[in-house]
C-alpha cells in the first residue's frame, strides 16, 4: 500500500510521519468527542458558553498547525474558520451554540474520513456558519465569500463591518504567506488584501493572484492608506482595483465591487 507521504520525505521518514499522523487523528477524535459532550452540558446549563468557547479556541489553535503539518488541509481550514468565527467577539448571539456544534461536527466528519477525495474544501467552507458580526446584529447573509488578508485591528474591523453590511460572509487571514494556499483551497468570491504586510507584501500577493492561472479569475482588491500617486502602487497589477483608507473608502469599495462584478 502506498504511503500518504511518498515523495514528501526522505526514505524511512515517511513511515514515521504516517504513524504520527495516525496518532494525531486519534487525538483529534478524542478531543472532538470531549467537545461534543461539553456542548451537551452547555445546553443543559451545566457549563457556560464561555467555557466552551475557551476550549474550542484552544483546540483550533492546536488543530490548524498540526493538521497542516500532517497534510490534512480540510481539517486545518475548518479549524482556522472556527478560530476566526470567534475572533474579537465578546458577546455571542443565541445561534452561537448551534454554530459551534456545526464546526465541531464538521471536524468530526473530516477526522472520520480524512482522505475523502470527493471532499471539496471550497464547498465545505460555504456550508460553515457565517462569522458573528462585531456589533452582534444579525442580517441576511449572502452566499458570497470574502477573505480579508489583513492584521487584526481597527482598520480590519471597519472593513469587516462594511462588508458584513453588504451581507457578505467574511473570514480573515493575517499572513500573506498563509493566504496563498488558503485562497487556492477555498476559492473565495473576493479577496481584499492590505498593501503593507510583512514577509510578502500585499502588492506582491495581489499581483501574483492576478497573474497565476490557478487564481487569476478570483476577484482581488488592494486596500491601502498610501496616496494614489505613491510610486509603490505603480507596481500593482492594473487588473487589481485599489480601495483607499480615507474619505473615498465607500466609493472605492463600491467601484471595486462593481468592476469585479460583485454588485
Description:
The protein has two domains: 1-130, Four Helix Bundle (Hemerythrin (Met), subunit A) (Up-down Bundle); 139-263, 3-Layer(aba) Sandwich (Rossmann fold), CATH 3.40.50.2300. α1 packs antiparallel against α2 (49-69) and α1 (13-43) packs antiparallel against α4 (96-112). It is 51% helix and 9% strand. The protein is globular and about 55 Å long. The protein has helices at 13-43, 49-69, 73-86, 96-112, 121-126, 154-165, 176-186, 202-211, 249-259, and strands at residues 145-149, 169-173, 190-194, 220-224, 242-244. α6 links the parallel β1 (145-149) and β2. A five-stranded parallel beta sheet has the order 2-1-3-4-5, sandwiched between helices. The protein is α/β, with parallel strands linked by helices. The longest helix is centred in the N-terminal third of the chain and has 31 residues, at 13-43.
Identify the overall geometry.
globular
- Give a short account of the largest sheet: 5 strands, parallel
Q: How much beta, percentage-wise?
A: 5-15%
Q: Describe the strand arrangement of the main beta sheet, using strand numbers.
A: 2-1-3-4-5
**Amino- and carboxy-terminal Cα gap:** 50 Å
Question: What's the quick description here?
Answer:
The protein is built from nine helices and five strands; from the N terminus they run αααααβαβαβαββα. With 263 residues, the protein is of the alpha/beta class. α1 (13-43) packs antiparallel against α2, α2 packs antiparallel against α3 (73-86) and α3 runs antiparallel to α4 (96-112).
